[in-house]
Amino acid sequence: EFWHREQELVRTEVLPYQWNALNDKVEGAAPSYCMHNFRAAGKLMKEKKSKGKEFTPPTYTFRGFEALPDDPEHPEEDKFYGFVFQDTDFSKWIEAVGYSLTIHPDAELEKTADDAIDVVCAAQLENGYLDTYYIINGMDRAFTNLRDHHELYCLGHLVEGAISYYQATGKDKLLNAAKRFADYCADYFGPEEDKCKGYPGHEIAEMALAKLYEVTGEEKYLKLAEFFIDERGKAPNYFEQEEEKRAKLDGVPYHKFILKPDANWFDRNRYWYHQAHIPVRKQSEAVGHAVRGVYLYSGMADVARLSDDEELYEACKRLWNNIVTEKLYVTGGIGGSHMGESFSFPFDLPNDTAYSETCAAIGLVFFARRMLQISAESKYSDVMELALYNTVLAGMALDGKSFFYVNPLEVFPTACDRDERKLHVKAVRQKWFGCACCPPNIARLVSSLGAYAYTQNEDTLWTHLYMSGVASKDTSQGKLVMETASELPWSGKVKVKVSGEVKQTLAFRIPGWSDSSDIKWTCNGEENIIHISKDQVASGDTSKAVIENGYIYLEGVWDNDEIDLSFEMNVRIVRSNNNVRENVGKVAVMRGPITYCLEEIDNGKNLHLVHLDVVKAQEAKDCVSFTNELGHNMAVIKLPGFKEKIEDDANLYKYASSSINMENAELRFVPYYSWNNRGIGEMTVWVRN
Ligand code: FUB
Ligand code: ZN
């Protein structure tokens, strides 16, 4: 089954590999220094304890946003290395470990994790503060650069990692450490007069604190999340005030940045990057750093749900709609611009210079999941599924051993290191990154996918993603068990067996990609069948089911019943809204939740000269076949097209009336997520027609 393979890959390949990476033991890969830093901070804490009053704490020196050893062969034992947020490599890893242990107990992995937790906890200050960057470099400057220095981002990841590990194992050592750091922050930040009015430069603490509130029931965590959300973007801007204070501390003149006469667009709008340009509740356009954006929106959705905050929910809806109507790639990626890894202006979705960071697609999945928790509407789950099957999966090689950070929709390898605009685009997955945010993010999402497939309230269980597996729900009448066997993403056939003799409404998503759906089910020995058309109009005995917001709701007392869902899955040839300048005159091929692409290995060089014959392609029969060539079963699509012959005469320019030599070509499309698993070469999602 599709996702089981991915989860097994995470367990057997990715987690051990990442543990080595965290310990700088992957040959040829950029060192992480993550565990090195925890050890260095732990050593310092030990020294502090043994020296007592004699201990002289380090005083802060800024050694760069990324500090690297002078001699890479011999990093100094006591120094902090890596990015200011390097601790989060551990936090994401332990989060993935927790989820993975829930699916598959593994004593050896748990032991490794327990030992790692000991190292991490030994680095914590007595007051609860835990970010090795400042512990090692000098606490005198802690919380003086919230805009750039990620301390609250480290808090957020630590909290999420600790919760996952606690829920998986019942062990609360890391959870207690995370709570102590959160308590320290709750004492430090807040609306009270004597507290700091700052908020995270990189969001995540908002959703993490909301989760911590749900796990512990302690209101102060939700209040802190709310505070962070509501302070953001208020005037006067906190980041600006903070910068002014810092200039004083550094004894340097302070120039209000945005008033600099020669400031470019990006600088004039620098608080967009942090979604801090206007108060969050007033925001309608997704702007700035894309990962930060969707992490913020996820936190907003959590707080809106937990506090019944209608105004905040409205802002979430506006931001969601803006993303999906103007800023979403056909691969489910977001954040098209490499300038600040950010959302670009409306409809700017470049293919060959796309940023489309893996983490940003993951953040979109987080946001979708949270919107679904408030209101089950397939407009969220359709996009969640698109992001998952395409950009998120493309972020990892099929053997789990290399990763993409940037996910372009078109690649000409020669240009990647020669065209300045494409220097961020890699034509081949990397073993690891100095800034290794994406690989552990994939690991934590893939190993917790069950939580995205379902949501529930007291009387309803929703299925959003069709993954094979067992879901169970404790109800006041007993346990409901739902066993799903899904053929997705290659066929739209899903079988669900329900048992438990429990009265419950079961809701199933009708995928937006399906041209029609047939739902057959038995309940109390009675057989029912309903046909749903593309525009979601039902025929058959419609008294037995309700269709709402893209979900079919079946109510009943279920016991040993079967539900057959059959979603018609055809090849779809799609075009963009013509505001997307890049894609005019081009089409993309999709089938079910999968977006396809052409690769050089199948279609030869010069993919810019390839045309799809849309008319013939739409009529093509038997164009889908299955292959196991990449070690797992996947559907490939062959469609008729043409290829312009390369012109090898000496004329760079000629009259437009001069003929172009075309030859027929059978185009072989493969799933986008599988690209670059067969060596380096050209790739394109959008094809001329
Ligand atoms: O800043 C922390 C992480 O590094 C961000 O989420 C990524 O976009 C990368 O910049
Ligand atoms: Zn990332």
Q: Can you put this structure into words, describing what you see?
A:
This protein is an alpha+beta fold and 689 residues long. Helices cover 37% and strands 19% of the residues. Strands 5, 18, 19, 20, 21, 22, 23, 24, 25 and 26 form a ten-stranded antiparallel beta sheet that branches. A seven-stranded antiparallel beta sheet has the order 8-9-10-17-12-13-14, with no helix packed on it. The two termini are 35 Å apart. The mean pLDDT is 95. The structure holds beta-L-arabinofuranose (FUB) and zinc ion (ZN).
Bound molecules: beta-L-arabinofuranose, zinc ion
- In whole angstroms, the N-to-C terminal distance is 35 Å
The coarse overall form would be globular
Task: Give me the secondary-structure category.
Answer: alpha+beta
Percent helix, as a range, is 25-40%
Overall mean pLDDT stands at 95
Helical region count?
A: 21
Major sheet, described briefly? 10 strands, antiparallel
Rg over CA atoms, rounded to whole Å, is: 26 Å
Give start-end ranges of low-pLDDT stretches.
none
How many beta-strand segments?
26
Range of strand content:
15-25%
Topology:
Elements: H1 2-22, H2 34-51, E1 66-67, E2 82-83, H3 87-103, H4 107-122, H5 132-137, H6 146-149, H7 151-169, H8 173-188, H9 205-216, H10 219-231, H11 238-250, H12 265-268, E3 288-289, H13 290-307, H14 310-326, E4 342-343, H15 358-374, H16 378-394, E5 410-411, H17 413-416, H18 438-446, H19 450-453, E6 454-456, E7 460-463, E8 469-475, E9 478-486, E10 493-499, E11 502-509, E12 517-523, E13 526-532, E14 538-540, E15 545-548, E16 551-558, E17 561-567, E18 571-574, E19 586-591, E20 594-599, H20 600-603, E21 610-612, H21 614-619, E22 624-627, E23 634-644, E24 662-671, E25 683-684, E26 687-688
Helix pairs in contact: 1-3, 1-18, 2-3, 2-4, 3-7, 3-18, 7-8, 7-9, 9-10, 9-13, 10-13, 13-14, 13-15, 15-16
